[in-house]
Design a protein that fits this description.
heterodimer; A: about 300 residues; alpha/beta; Globin-like; Transcription Regulator spoIIAA; 2 domains; 5 strands; rod-shaped; B: about 150 residues; 5-stranded antiparallel β-sheet; 4 helices
Amino acid sequence: MPEYGAAGQGGSPAREVGEFLLRRRERIAQRWADETLFRTVFTVSREEAVEAGRAVVEALAQVAGADRSADPEAPGFLVVRDQLARIGSARTRTGVTPSQVSNDVDALRPPTVDLLVADLPDAAPEAVREATNVLTVLMGTLRLVVMETALSEGQALIDRQRLQLMEVATPVIKLWDGIVAVPLIGTLDSARSQIVMETLLEAVVDQQARFAILDITGVPTVDSLVAQHLMKTVAAARLMGAECVVSGIRPAIAQTIVHLGLDLGTVVTRASLADALGYALRKLGTDIVTEASHGAGER
Amino acid sequence: METAAGVEACLPIRSDMDLVWVRQHVRQAAAQLGFGLVDQTKLVTAASELARNTLVHGGGGRMEAAHVVRGRVNGLRLAFADDGPGIPDLDRALTDGYTSGDGLGMGLGGARRLVHEFAIDSAPGAGTTVTVTSWAVRPPHPREVV
């Protein structure tokens, strides 16, 4: 930032504020380090807080120097955007409401204004007022930028979690040679059911499965769309040579399906995963017998 | 159970995520009003069908939930409203297996069988409002003639 090197007298108020910020950045950062925002985020060392404060002050100086005090999109903020996002999200993670964070940022303003006024002892009252105005606008913009970055951080987090949930919630489990099971959990929307179908079909190929069990114990609502997704998955698995069994149909779900008028007649269904496994094992010619009846009641 | 707090609501239906919200709200409201597990599930499923209709065919809208009381029985009334193209032929829309999209065509007719009271108000170009009501205790059935 070489353009701030020459301290020109009689520049625009914005430029003056920019020069003041750059000149006094050390003292401002020291004052900020004792304010709530920096004190609660940088708990390890005060030095860290001062350093972060210095970076923010330098960014503000650049924004003011470019005469874009009221513009949250000013390029000067780009440098500290990550820093500000970290500060904002660190505060909200501790359970502080967004408006409190906003107030914390606003608390940085009074000490800065004090320093500005003290820095201009000889200036005309008019000039002091103008400079103070610029600084106030600038600090308001900083507040806006912090809130904005905190919000977009939250949105990014939600998007990430949604993706994570989709991947995590669809494991394919090998139960026996030739038998795989997918325990479905949560809402079965179009995107989820697409992933379920893909992972299931891949597993059918990898495990050379003859039977695939779709367990819907963890699906809270089975409506016509969910049923349609299930039937499509069953049909696709059948094309690959695997028979599908839908298990985990609770009494309330069974009654609802009947009232809804859905015809699952083409799909083999069982009440529990154990029943479905037993069905598949029998079809594969394997049967589980208890030790006592072994040899005596073997079929 | 006397208070209706947490039951009355107006939820937007704009995306798949909103459908999750609708289902959860209906489930919680029904449980709060003393619905049994089967009736809860039926009402939630009906709400899911109707909310999806609002989203897919009506281009989005809203659901209003209200606590209604008849005598000493609590009920839950759900109104699904959209400003979409409306339904030109109601009888056909209620026929099982008929669909204007690529679904199973069971939604509207199925939803009607899942609730106690069902009313539909629609005209071409004037949007659609489907209002359903279910009671926590089944109203006494007239004796069936064998």
